[in-house]
Amino acid sequence: MKILLVRVSSLGDVLHNLPMVADILRHHPDATIDWVVEEGYTSLVRLNPHVRKIIPWALRRWRKSLGKPETRAEIKAFFSTLREEAYDYVFDTQGLLKTGIIMGAARVRKGGRKVGLANGSEGSGYEGISRIFHTDSIPLNPRTHAVARGRMVAGAALGYAVDYPPDFGLPAPQADSRPAFLPPEDYAVFFHGTAREAKKWSRANWIELGRALAPMPVLLPWGSPGELQEAEQLAAGLPNARVLPKLSMMDAVALARHARLAVGVDTGLTHIAAAFVRPTVEIYCDSPKWKTEGNWSDKIVNLGDLGTPPSAPEVIAAARRLLEAA
Q: Long-range contact list for 300-305, CB < 8 A, 24+ apart?
């Protein structure tokens, strides 16, 4: 059986799609699985050794230069690569027009199926027009967890129940894979940055938490000039904190993968720490907890909810419990 997964973005959504791979192979061990993903996330998918071929999609870059011959040549090459294989199943678990077009262009064998979402989840960017590319549209409860959505779509199409915890297929951290920019001792990482202001936890809370964790080093990553400024302000109030240099995506993944403790707001890197089953406190301030909470391990604590951020003492207590449990 040959299967193509279409989930192109974003970081957290690509991560949440990974358990589909283990599910499919659990029930169809001879299946081969390929994946179309935005080029910036290919290295994340590559961490899962059971994905045979990754086909990079570069729309974010292409749309800046659609008039250039080299861009048009890249797009042509993408669709040529996409159509090299004929698949038994193509799954689009994003439900957008752009992912529907990819699904529509993919080849299937005689009797092959193109399977997608019949509806979106609450607050999602689902585009109903994507259904015109489906042979099968799977309806789901609008409050289905982000990890469960893709798993349930595949299960419905391939005839199995998803009644066991997700397996992200991510390798455990190895001592010889620890990057040089990380300290040799145990550390906590604060994933404090996020694009939406309302999802952030207050600076005073981060500082209170960091002081409670002292003398454990606290590492502060950032992804934009604004987040760098915020990291520097946090470090100014925390003698045990260090602002990191700008990291590549895979360095940021390694940061989460090796952390003794990860604390973060509702953002992709926090969810990566949870997927690696590192001791993780996920903080929800202005997004619904049901949608992305790490619910597959007792090493993950989810606090707060839409409009009700947790207090610093609540997060401190959760962090201490996780540290003591290991």
A: 300/274
d(CA 201, CA 102): 38
Supply 198's token pair: 């309302």
Extract the tokens encoding 24: 């499919």
pLDDT in tens, 153-174: 999 999 999 999 999 999 887 7
Residue whose structure tokens are 């798993």: 151
Q: How far apart are CA 63 and CA 134, in angstroms?
A: 25
Tokens matching residue 124: 């999602």
Cβ atoms of residues 323 and 315 within 8 Å: no
Q: Supply 155's token pair.
A: 């299960």
Token couple for 279: 């001791």
- pLDDT tens digit string along 67-114? 999 999 999 999 999 999 999 999 999 999 999 999 999 999 999 999
Q: Which amino acid makes up residue 280?
A: T
Question: pLDDT confidence of 292, banded at 50, 70, 90?
Answer: very high
Who contacts 16 (Cβ-Cβ below 8 Å, separation ≥6)?
A: 146, 147, 149, 150, 271, 292
| Token reading at 274 | 């949870």
Q: Name the CA radius of gyration of the chain, rounded.
A: 20
Dist CA 93 CA 158 (whole Å): 15
